[in-house]
C-alpha cells in the first residue's frame, strides 16, 4: 500500500540538530551520500539521515568541514515501499522501456548508469548533464527512432512525477552566462514555483536557477531590512531581490541585471509578489549603472559567482556615509577561506580609505552555502561598515 513501511532495518546514519537538518540533507545529496531507500528519522532534538557506504575516517573528515557538529552512528530506519522511492520508480520504468528497446545483454549495464540526482523546478525536472549520455546510452539511443526516444523522456518525466523534463548543459560562455538546458519533454521551459513563500517564474532553458542556494535565500530573507535602501548588483530573476523585498521588507531595492531573459523573470516575480512599488529594475551593464546609486544604499548584495570582485569598489561607494552592509558571494577553496576572508576585509578597507571613508570595517559572518566543486566552497561574507566618528558627509 502506498505510504506504508516495512520493518526497521539497521543502516549507517549521520545525526545533527534538527535546525541543521535541511543543510545536512542538501550536503548529503550533493555528495551522493544520502541513502534514499530509507526514511529520515527524528530523535527528540536530533535528525538521523541514512548514509550510503561504510562509516570510516574519510566520511568523518568530510563532515568535519560542516559549520555544525554531526555524529556518525547506526540506526534502525524504516524502508520505504518501492512505489514511494523515485529512484526505484525510475529504475522500474526504464527497465520496462529497455525490455522493448534494448538487447538483453545491454540492460544490466544501462540500468546501472541511470541518474541518481535531479532538480525540481515547479512541475519540471532537470537531469544532470551526463544523464543518459554514457557511451552505452548514446549507442543505444543512436539506434532508436524519434518516437522511441520521445517515449523514453515521457517515461522518465512520469517516473519522477514531472510534466516536463530537461537536461543541464554547460553554461554558455557569453556575457549573460546563459542557461543551455535542453528541453527533452514538454512544450516549453517556463516554470513557476514557491520558494520559502516567494513566487518565481522563468524559462529554465534560458536562465539558470540553483536549488542548492536554497539555504542562503532563506537566510537573506530572514534578515530584517526595514527602512533600508538595498542595491542588488546581480539580480538575475530575483533570486535574492524578491526575498529581500517580500520577506526582509526592504524599503526599496535597486535590482541591476543585463540579461533580457533574466529581466523577464525578474519583472514577472516583482508583479507576482506584489512588490512593484519597492523594486526598481536597472537594465544594462552595472559597471555603468551602479554609479547612479553612489551614497544611496544601506546594503549591497553581490551575488555573482565565481567572483563579484569587479564591483566591490562600486558597492563600497554605493553605501551611505554612515556605512552599511555588503553581502559578498565567492567561490573559495576550503583551505583558503580564512585567508580569503581576511584579505577581503583588507581590500575593502583600502577601497574605503581611497574614497575618504573613516569606517570601522568588520566581517561579521561567513556562510558556507554549498560545495561548488571538490574542495571549493560557495561562501557568502557579511561585511559591516560603520563610521568611526559619525562625521562623514551625507
How many β-strand stretches? 17
Largest beta-sheet characterization: 7 strands, mixed
What structural category characterises the helix and strand content? Answer: alpha/beta
Give the uncertain stretches in residue-range form: 1-5, 172-176
CATH architecture classification name of the largest domain: 3-Layer(aba) Sandwich
Identify the CATH homologous superfamily of the largest domain: Vaccinia Virus protein VP39
Reading side by side through the largest sheet, how are the strands ordered?
13-12-11-14-15-17-16
From the structure provided, what is the oligomeric state, counting identical versus distinct chains? single chain
Molecular shape: globular
CATH top level class name of the largest domain: Alpha Beta
* Strand percentage: 25-35%
The number of domains is 3
The span between the termini is: 68 Å
What is the number of helical segments per DSSP (H or I, 4+ residues)? 12
Helix content: 25-40%
The CATH topology of the largest domain corresponds to Rossmann fold
Query: Averaging pLDDT over every residue, what do you get?
Result: 89
H/E order of the elements?
EHEEHEHHEEHHEEEEHEHEHEHEHEHEE
Using only CA atoms, what is the Rg?
24 Å
Amino acid at each position: 500500500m502506498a505510504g506504508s513501511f516495512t520493518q526497521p532495518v539497521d543502516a549507517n546514519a549521520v545525526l545533527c540538530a534538527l535546525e541543521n537538518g535541511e543543510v545536512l540533507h542538501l550536503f548529503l545529496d550533493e555528495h551522493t551520500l544520502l541513502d534514499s531507500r530509507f526514511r529520515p528519522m527524528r530523535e527528540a532534538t536530533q535528525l538521523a539521515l541514512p548514509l550510503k557506504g561504510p562509516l570510516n575516517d574519510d566520511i568523518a573528515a568530510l563532515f568535519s568541514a560542516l559549520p555544525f557538529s554531526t555524529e556518525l552512528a547506526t540506526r534502525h530506519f524504516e524502508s520505504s515501499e518501492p512505489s514511494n522511492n523515485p529512484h526505484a520508480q525510475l529504475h522500474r520504468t526504464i527497465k520496462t522501456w529497455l525490455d522493448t528497446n534494448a538487447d538483453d545483454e545491454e540492460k544490466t549495464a544501462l540500468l546501472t548508469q541511470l541518474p541518481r540526482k535531479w532538480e525540481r523546478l515547479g512541475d519540471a525536472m532537470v537531469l544532470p548533464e551526463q544523464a543518459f549520455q554514457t557511451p552505452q546510452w548514446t549507442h543505444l539511443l543512436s539506434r532508436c527512432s524519434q518516437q522511441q526516444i520521445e517515449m523514453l523522456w515521457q517515461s522518465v518525466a512520469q517516473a519522477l512525477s514531472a510534466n516536463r523534463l530537461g537536461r543541464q548543459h554547460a553554461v554558455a560562455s557569453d556575457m549573460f552566462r546563459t542557461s543551455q538546458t535542453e528541453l527533452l519533454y514538454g512544450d516549453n521551459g517556463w516554470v513557476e514555483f514557491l520558494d520559502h513563500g516567494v513566487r518565481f517564474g522563468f524559462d529554465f532553458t534560458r536562465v539558470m536557477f540553483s536549488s542548492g542556494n536554497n539555504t542562503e535565500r532563506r537566510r537573506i530573507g530572514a534578515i530584517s531590512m526595514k527602512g533600508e535602501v538595498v542595491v542588488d548588483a546581480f539580480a538575475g530573476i530575483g533570486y535574492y531581490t524578491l526575498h529581500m523585498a517580500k520577506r526582509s521588507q526592504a524599503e526599496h531595492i535597486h535590482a541591476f541585471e543585463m540579461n533580457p531573459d533574466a529581466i523577464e523573470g525578474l519583472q514577472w516575480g516583482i508583479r507576482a509578489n506584489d512588490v512593484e512599488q519597492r523594486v526598481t529594475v536597472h537594465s544594462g551593464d552595472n559597471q555603468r549603472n551602479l554609479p547612479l546609486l553612489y551614497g544611496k544604499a544601506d546594503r549591497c548584495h553581490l551575488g555573482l559567482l565565481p567572483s563579484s570582485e569587479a564591483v566591490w569598489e562600486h558597492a563600497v561607494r554605493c553605501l551611505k556615509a554612515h556605512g552599511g552592509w555588503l553581502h559578498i558571494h565567492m567561490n573559495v577553496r576550503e583551505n583558503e577561506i580564512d585567508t580569503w576572508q581576511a584579505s577581503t576585509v583588507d581590500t575593502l578597507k583600502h577601497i574605503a580609505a581611497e574614497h575618504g571613508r573613516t569606517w570601522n570595517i568588520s566581517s561579521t559572518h561567513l556562510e558556507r552555502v554549498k560545495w561548488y566543486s571538490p574542495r571549493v566552497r560557495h561562501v557568502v561574507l557579511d561585511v559591516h561598515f560603520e563610521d568611526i566618528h559619525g562625521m562623514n558627509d551625507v
